[in-house]
Amino acid sequence: MEYLRPTPWDERNFRIPTYEVTSVSEEALKETDQYEGHYTIKVNPMENPEQILKHDFYYMDTLIEPVCEKENLVAFDREGTSISKDYAKEEVLAIAEEAFMHGRFHRDFHIPSSLADLRYMNWVRDLQMKDQIFALYYQDQLAGFYGYEGEKVLLLGMKEEFRSKGLAKAFTSKGCQAQFNDGHDRLRTSISAANVASLNLFIMLGFKLKNTIDVYHKLNGPSPAEV
Length: 227
Known about the structure:
Elements: E1 4-6, H1 8-14, E2 18-21, H2 26-31, E3 37-43, H3 50-54, E4 58-69, E5 81-84, H4 89-98, H5 104-107, H6 113-129, E6 133-138, E7 141-149, E8 152-158, H7 168-181, E9 186-189, E10 191-192, H8 196-204, E11 208-220
Parallel strand pairs: 2-3, 8-9
Antiparallel strand pairs: 1-2, 3-11, 4-9, 4-10, 4-11, 5-6, 6-7, 7-8
């Protein structure tokens, strides 16, 4: 497999082979026809998708990369909000199970929603093991979590009853400041173009939109079975 990079973090959830395609060349696309599994390929939006579509890939998402320099972070506060590394792991996992709906695997018609949820839960478990989760508290109640790695902001999940209350700006601001305090001069994240609320949030915090990339999926073989 010259052009196929296995993605074991996805295979564990879907229980079929999963790959990222490392090239948009014809040789790489032909290789996706030879093996069963689920494929992801990321391309420049200016790339002509004709050959990709001919090999049964289908458009899935456009990812936008906002970036923020340390000096440009706009700090927001809200009385009663705080972040902490002290939390009940299972309570955070319960939030992860139901907090996400904009992920590309949730929109992939070949992937059962329960497996897309499982993917987020396992991602949060991995971050918990690496101590890369902040719990978000509002008036001493667990409201959500903030996941990160190095200079990357990865996940923001909130309980339904705490959404649309103007808390996300304060929580995300505190999480970003904690990352900057760890010594990073720049932060970046990746957001689906469909997730307008998150894009607006990071713009308000001082992030600037830098790059975009189109994501295509392909399934060669049977769909993964729901659990």
